[in-house]
Design brief:
Blueprint (H helix, E strand, L loop, with lengths): L1 H6 L2 H10 L10 H13 L4 E4 L7 E6 L7 E7 L19 E2 L2 E3 L7 H16 L8 E6 L10 H7 L7 E6 L6 E3 L2 E10 L1 E10 L3 E2 L9 H12 L10 H13 L4 H10 L12 H8 L5 E8 L6 E2 L2 E10 L6 H12 L4 E4 L3 H6 L9 H13 L4 E7 L5 H4 L5 E4 L21 E3 H17 L2
Parallel strand pairs: 3-6, 3-7, 7-17, 9-16
Antiparallel strand pairs: 1-2, 2-6, 4-5, 5-18, 8-9, 10-14, 10-15, 11-13, 12-14
This protein binds zinc ion.
């Protein structure tokens, strides 16, 4: 059916998906899921639609494989972050095609992934090809606000739907990065996980019309914020970060290679990777330590009162591996020079349970590397530790080996990766075509 083929090309499908506003909050993913459901049903694919709430459905579809590989989960979230307060050059839900880019909220994060995956699967089906193993497509809700209605619901309430799945490919990674003249294709093999904290700072309260006593809560707040500005907590070596840094050092020209190697050996706790662009240096520095940033301050909204209590929310991120929230909090208190009054905003059990196992580099990982070497021979596949946290933390609880790979080949110096959650989010059309080809290739022969 030519009409169906037109709607299921990755680019037109991405445009259509962007035009359905799924800003979260509130999410309201239903029309987006209904659109995909219709397209899949028209192609004869049976879907399961389920969720906690009629307006927040998840969609699952199984594609039968040749049985030469274990089942593979391809997951992507259909919600997007809001555009509130952002200045866009084009309307954010236009899905416009301009300057060879598809524009709009979700172009990268991560409706392009849904579009590329569906296009790859339906393209193969239309040609009568079967994937190597069964493929479970999961389009999930609510990733941008904690996944309660999405991946967490599916993993807790419907683990049976994922029976037999050994590997998963999901969010983050993929989009190529240029460093020292080398193009890297990151494949996320481990993620940091969030440990959000609320710090309470107390001081004398009272009328603010006269000389205040010393050490008001606001003065203490000032000291805390200054102490946390650019805070570098102690270093930790993890196998995942070691692998990432060794790959980078192995591919970069001198003197950058030696600089990364020196940094990776970590003799000097305060050393930073020298000679790299500042942004890359900070990214690399974040994979060898827990990080913490104050993001929200709450005070009583009264101009004529000294606030007796102020809270600061801290976005803490714990390294992958055997680190507990308590380890991170100990380091934070030491850095602050005092035991702060802290509350964990994500329940402790959750922070604990969402640990991700050490990465493995066989099987599916090697299939991805092989495809990248063939499709982009000059570039270097990079096993990456991501500072972001995705639904992989939930699916991995089912014993599924998760990788983050949204294959997009971007030109050198491209601003695209910086546009996540930002105004003018967009994706080059040829990157979407590259990604669809990579995914098709993977489905043909993953191991
Ligand atoms: Zn996302």
């Amino acid at each position: 059916v030519p009409e169906l083929a037109q709607r299921t090309g990755a680019v037109p499908l991405l445009q259509d998906l962007i035009r359905i506003d799924t800003s979260n909050p509130p999410g309201a993913e239903r029309p987006c899921v209904a659109h995909l459901h219709q397209i899949l049903a028209d192609a004869g694919v049976a879907c399961t639609v389920l969720g906690t709430d009629d307006n927040r459905p998840n969609l699952l579809a199984r594609f039968r494989g040749r049985g030469t590989a274990p089942a593979l989960l391809l997951h992507a979230h259909s919600d997007v972050v809001p555009v509130t307060g952002q200045q866009w050059s084009l309307p954010p839900f236009s899905g416009a095609l301009l300057d060879s880019h598809v524009w709009g909220r979700g172009a990268l994060d991560m409706k392009c992934s849904i579009a590329m995956t569906v296009a790859a699967l339906l393209g193969m089906q239309a040609r009568g090809e079967e994937p190597a193993g069964d493929v479970l497509l999961a389009v999930v809700a609510d990733e941008e606000a904690g996944s309660a209605a999405g991946a967490r619901y599916l993993v807790r309430q419907h683990p049976e739907l994922f029976r037999g799945v050994r590997y998963a490919i999901g969010e983050d990674g993929g989009a190529s990065v240029e460093l020292g003249g080398v193009r890297f294709h990151p494949i996320v093999v481990a993620e940091k996980r969030a440990c959000w904290l609320r710090m309470t700072i107390r001081g004398p309260s009272g009328h603010s019309s006269r000389l205040a006593p010393p050490a008001t809560a606001l003065a203490k707040l000032g000291r805390v914020l200054t102490t946390l500005d650019g805070a570098r907590l102690p270093r930790h070596q993890t196998p995942a970060a070691d692998g990432m840094l060794a790959t980078i050092a192995g591919a970069l020209p001198e003197p950058l290679a030696s600089s990364v190697t020196r940094f990776s050996r970590g003799a000097d706790r305060d050393a930073t990777p020298q000679g790299l662009p500042e942004r890359s240096a900070r990214e690399i520095d974040s994979v060898v330590r827990h990080t913490v940033n104050p993001t929200v301050v709450r005070t009583p909204d009264k101009i004529n009162m000294l606030p007796g209590e102020i809270t600061v929310d801290l976005d803490g991120r714990i390294l992958p591996g055997e680190f507990a929230a308590g380890d991170f909090i100990r380091e934070l208190n030491k850095h602050l020079g005092e035991a702060a009054e802290l509350e964990i905003l994500l329940e402790g059990a959750q922070v604990h349970e969402e640990r991700i196992a050490e990465p493995q580099f066989g099987g599916l990982y090697q299939s991805i590397v092989g495809i990248l070497r063939e499709r982009d021979p000059q570039a270097v596949p990079l096993p990456m530790v991501s500072a972001a946290s995705t639904d992989a933390r939930l699916f991995s609880q089912l014993g599924i080996r998760c990788y983050g790979w949204i294959p997009l080949r971007l030109p050198a110096g491209s601003p695209i990766r910086g546009l996540l959650h930002s105004p003018d989010e967009r994706v080059p059309v040829d990157a979407v075509e590259f990604g669809t080809q990579c995914l098709t290739e993977l489905l043909r022969g993953f191991g």
